[in-house]
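To the wet lab folks,

You asked to see what we're planning to order before we commit. Fair enough. Below is the target structure as tokens, and below that is the sequence we designed to fit it. If anything looks off to you, flag it before the synthesis order goes out.
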């Protein structure tokens, strides 16, 4: 039982080192929220698992649960739709507001057309200008 208690922190340390090396090291470390959740979950799972002599299993389960929760939260955020208004100046100097729906990085116009990036006023004028 004592070897498990010593071995688990070593494994967690190795996994942490692997994550740091993949992310570019400490100096330029850009933590992805899923890494934060997984490492935090692993720590909490290890503490809970340690109480029942199941350190490794607790750490693995904690990391998996926390990372999955973070991933689902990110998916939920990216699937939300927002509205963007582009004002089109008409020939008579009046302005026509064009309401676009933005989901992830795709913009959809009122007539169902799709744009990979935010369309300019010039792109929208032929469709919505007067």
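Sequence we intend to order:
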């Amino acid at each position: 039982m004592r070897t498990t208690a010593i071995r688990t922190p070593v494994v967690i340390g190795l996994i942490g080192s692997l994550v740091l090396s993949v992310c570019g090291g400490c100096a330029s470390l850009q933590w992805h929220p899923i890494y934060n959740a997984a490492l935090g979950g692993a720590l909490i799972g290890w503490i809970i698992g340690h109480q029942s002599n199941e350190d490794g299993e607790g750490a693995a389960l904690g990391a998996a649960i926390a990372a999955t929760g973070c991933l689902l939260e990110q998916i939920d955020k990216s699937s939300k739709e927002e509205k963007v208004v582009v004002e089109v100046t008409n020939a008579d100097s009046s302005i026509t507001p064009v309401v676009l729906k933005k989901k992830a990085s795709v913009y959809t116009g009122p007539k169902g057309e799709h744009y990979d990036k935010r369309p300019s006023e010039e792109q929208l004028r032929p469709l919505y200008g007067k």
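Structural context that might help your review: The chain has two domains: 2-78, 81-128. The longest helix spans residues 55-78.

Thanks,
Computational group
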